[in-house]
């Protein structure tokens, strides 16, 4: 999905206030493109196992020397010398939520790349637990009903097509973890470690009758353990895409009465076993032609009633992954007992939008037009159904927004609006993944319900209030009376791609997956970040002369400029090009009126003369697309670029280059993804380049002749993706390296490396930058799953520029 503004044309018969017009900044996210981009950066040559290299890297890191950025007498100021900057109020993709049935204020959740989090006060404050997990891609979580201190966490997010580039799925896990002390400590179940069958654990269930019986829905089927995970038996075998994705377990039967849904982007099937703890054969009970990803929910107050919400496989782009149908069985899920209720054939268009971005369907209608649009379908990515604990006919379903039916699934109303102002009670962030009810929910005095999504965790205390019906129910953000509150308080799971720091060190911003451009300040603290621009956030830059001018972008090179320090933006489009999903751009440090951006070409802007100029010939297909850029400080004519196919490009005529200018190409390691390029701030001949991916050669390179020749600097580093390199301007032989497993530091120009003692786990660190801190320069880390962090650097003598 390419982004487009929605603004006030979404609001039927309403005049546009200034606040509403600011919604032009919003744009849709592209989760499939994001997944493919994430996987592309982590490609491995044939025969190379990323999982094995991660394991080898952890062993190597454990034996490496440790580096403390902050002096020992400053350690008390922050955990490990690092301070969490935020955002704690934005959240990030969250696919799991567990509520303690006795101490209801205790809850656990997990970011898909940020690990497991716990709250003791109902979401008033969260803290990370289980940073011992070797893999932070938490996708499933379940509590033992007989032992509240025992939980199991499944890793690996597997709701995507195979990457068209031939790499494996993104956010690979490495098995199932267990805790027996409420989440304080976690350990891997050895039977799942380093096994293909448990690298994408999509759902987990524990028997209500026997804590030894554990079930896992994974990419290769449904697995059963009768000894708490020591050994496993596969009870459902499948080779459909995605494998088995969802489990629904009845607790009122003597045996384990279990349903499983398998298949995404291919024909899906719902299976059932009435005694899953035995070796009795499972039966297929629902397999309607065209079903894609299907989620399941059993009615707690009448367990013979079960619902299924399915997306649709279609060769038509207008229909693919939209609603296929809501199914209901009142006969224990028996085959031939399923009724097709709301479906893609419904006359009521609201019913058809359960798995579609509803405002994308209605945008013209909301603006007084006559035509509906096909809409943006998301059923493969966000798809969840749940039944009111007290009423089997009141059912909730969600894709992008939340919906409720009060007549058993036949007719639906809108219960949340992702596109409205996030201060309004009807706002819930887009892309829903969990609907969960408070353990003491009774439908009257207690109507508390929770939802998790790509923006974290939300709660409503009036789940049974009126919902929006019909056209006005979609177009008017006041049509639903269900009021929502964000529970994102110190919940630091935001997935940044890049970041920048204002010159005074008091403000910072970054581009985040499905959370746009985010701005934070020291004065406001971690829980008051703002989102002035939407879509999938990407690169950001601050004008070195006028810090009130900020440039940002959403996916595929959609640039936007702010002249008020990032409070508001306007769109500025570069020349059409074949941009990467996350498109690199830079402001020339020598001329703040010049911006560079790259796709298959290099292009530059000049504010003094206006417009854009193409500044290179087109890259051939084998050279790839531009993935990294850098302009030499003090030499605006010298510029380097890297590509996603491992090519480094160089010119000393950047400012005068034309569409016929050939940039010199060199491939130091013969393939890979060039993830960053960094010039020494005082020496335009000294430059570093980093590579993501696995295998294929060294990941860090150095040139002492401005990029003409390169030598590797990987001595002692593990073979994992490297994303960003920053040079300390107070001591230019000190380098900070952001990687898939945290940060490494070199104090001798890359000859040797140490593991940085961070306070935010071994998380993917996409961007490290040096900026102003409290008492001088500081190093900032923008992570893909743990938000933004800062550590002060030791005071040094600043070298004079040459």
What does this protein look like?
- With 802 residues, the chain is mainly beta.
- The strands form 14 sheets. The chain has a 5-stranded mixed beta sheet, with no helix packed on it. A 4-stranded antiparallel beta sheet has the order 2-57-56-55, with no helix packed on it.
Structural topology:
Elements: H1 18-21, H2 31-40, H3 50-63, E1 66-67, E2 83-86, E3 94-99, E4 107-111, E5 115-119, E6 127-129, E7 138-144, E8 147-155, E9 176-179, E10 187-188, E11 201-206, E12 214-218, E13 221-225, E14 233-237, E15 244-250, E16 257-262, E17 269-273, E18 283-286, E19 291-298, E20 306-312, E21 323-329, E22 338-343, H4 358-366, E23 384-387, E24 395-398, E25 402-405, E26 413-414, E27 432-437, E28 449-453, E29 456-460, H5 470-475, E30 484-486, E31 496-501, E32 507-512, E33 516-521, E34 530-533, E35 537-542, E36 550-554, E37 558-562, E38 570-572, E39 585-587, E40 594-598, E41 602-606, E42 612-614, E43 626-632, E44 635-643, E45 648-651, E46 664-666, E47 673-680, E48 683-692, E49 700-703, E50 711-712, E51 722-727, E52 735-739, E53 742-746, E54 754-756, E55 765-772, E56 777-783, E57 788-792
């Amino acid at each position: 999905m390419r982004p487009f503004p929605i603004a006030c044309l979404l609001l039927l018969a309403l005049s546009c206030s200034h606040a509403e017009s600011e919604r032009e900044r919003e744009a849709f996210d592209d989760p499939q493109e994001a997944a493919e981009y994430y996987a592309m950066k982590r490609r491995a040559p044939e025969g190379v196992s990323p999982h094995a290299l991660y394991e080898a890297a952890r062993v190597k890191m454990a034996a490496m020397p440790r580096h403390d950025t902050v002096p020992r007498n400053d350690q008390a100021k922050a955990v490990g010398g690092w301070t969490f900057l935020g955002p704690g109020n934005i959240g990030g993709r969250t696919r799991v939520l567990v509520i303690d049935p006795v101490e209801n204020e205790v809850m656990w959740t997990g970011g898909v790349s940020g690990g497991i989090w716990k709250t003791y006060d109902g979401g008033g404050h969260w803290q990370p637990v289980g940073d011992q997990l070797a893999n932070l891609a938490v996708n499933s979580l379940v509590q033992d009903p007989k032992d509240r201190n025992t939980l199991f966490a499944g890793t690996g997010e597997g709701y995507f097509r195979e990457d068209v580039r031939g790499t494996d799925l993104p956010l690979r896990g490495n098995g199932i973890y267990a805790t027996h002390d409420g989440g304080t400590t976690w350990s891997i179940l050895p039977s799942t470690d380093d096994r293909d069958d448990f690298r994408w654990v999509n759902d987990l269930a524990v028997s209500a009758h026997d804590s030894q019986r554990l079930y896992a829905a994974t990419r290769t089927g449904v697995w059963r353990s009768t000894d708490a995970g020591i050994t496993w038996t596969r009870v459902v075998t499948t080779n459909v895409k995605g494998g088995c994705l969802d489990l629904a377990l009845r607790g009122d039967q003597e045996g384990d009465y279990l349903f499983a849904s398998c298949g995404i982007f291919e024909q899906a099937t719902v299976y059932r076993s009435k005694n899953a703890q035995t070796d009795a054969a499972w039966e297929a009970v629902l397999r309607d032609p065209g079903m894609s990803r299907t989620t399941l929910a059993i009615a707690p107050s009448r367990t013979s009633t079960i619902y299924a919400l399915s997306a649709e496989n279609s060769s038509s782009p207008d229909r693919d992954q939209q609603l296929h149908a809501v199914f209901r069985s009142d006969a224990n899920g028996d085959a031939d007992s399923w009724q097709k209720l709301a479906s893609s054939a419904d006359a009521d268009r609201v019913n058809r939008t359960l798995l579609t971005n509803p405002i994308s369907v209605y945008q013209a209608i909301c603006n007084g037009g006559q035509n509906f649009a096909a809409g943006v379908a998301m059923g493969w990515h966000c798809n969840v159904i749940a039944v009111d604990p007290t009423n089997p006919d009141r059912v909730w379903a969600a894709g992008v927004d939340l919906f409720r039916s009060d007549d058993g699934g036949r007719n639906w109303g809108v219960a949340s609006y992702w596109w409205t102002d996030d201060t309004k009670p009807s706002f819930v962030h887009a892309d829903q993944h969990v609907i969960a009810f408070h353990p003491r929910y009774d439908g009257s005095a207690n109507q508390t319900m929770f939802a998790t999504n790509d923006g974290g965790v939300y709660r409503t205390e009036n789940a049974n209030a009126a919902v929006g019906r019909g056209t006005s129910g979609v177009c008017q953000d006041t049509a639903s009376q269900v009021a929502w509150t964000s529970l994102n308080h110190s919940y630091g799971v935001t997935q940044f791609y890049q970041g920048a720091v204002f010159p005074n060190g008091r403000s910072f911003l970054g581009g985040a997956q499905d959370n746009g451009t985010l701005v934070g300040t020291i004065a406001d603290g971690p829980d008051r970040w703002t989102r002035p621009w939407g879509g999938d956030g990407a690169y950001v830059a601050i004008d070195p002369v006028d810090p009130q001018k900020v440039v940002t972008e959403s996916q595929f090179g959609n640039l936007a400029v702010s002249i008020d320090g990032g409070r508001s933006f306007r769109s500025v489009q570069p020349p059409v090009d074949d941009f990467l999903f996350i498109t690199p751009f830079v402001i020339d440090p020598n001329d703040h009126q010049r911006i560079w951006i790259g796709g298959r070409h290099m292009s530059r802007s000049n504010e003094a003369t206006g417009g854009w100029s193409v500044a290179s010939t087109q890259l051939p297909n084998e050279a790839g697309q531009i993935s990294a850029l850098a302009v030499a400080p003090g030499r605006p004519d010298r510029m380097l670029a890297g590509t996603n196919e491992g090519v480094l490009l160089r010119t000393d005529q950047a400012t005068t280059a034309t569409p016929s200018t050939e940039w010199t190409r060199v491939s130091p390691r013969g393939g890979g993804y060039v993830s960053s390029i960094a010039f020494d701030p005082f020496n335009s001949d000294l430059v570093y380049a980093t590579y993501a991916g696995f295998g294929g050669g060294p990941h860090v390179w150095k040139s002492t002749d401005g990029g003409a020749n390169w030598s590797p600097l990987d001595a002692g580093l593990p073979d994992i993706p490297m994303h960003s390199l920053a040079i300390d301007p107070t001591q230019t032989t000190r380098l900070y390296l952001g990687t898939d497993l945290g940060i490494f530091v070199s104090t001798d120009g890359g000859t040797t490396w140490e593991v940085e003692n961070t306070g935010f786990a071994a998380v993917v660190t996409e961007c490290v930058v040096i900026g102003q801190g409290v008492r001088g320069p500081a190093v900032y880390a923008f992570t893909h799953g743990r938000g933004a962090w800062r550590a002060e650097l030791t005071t040094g003598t600043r070298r004079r520029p040459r």
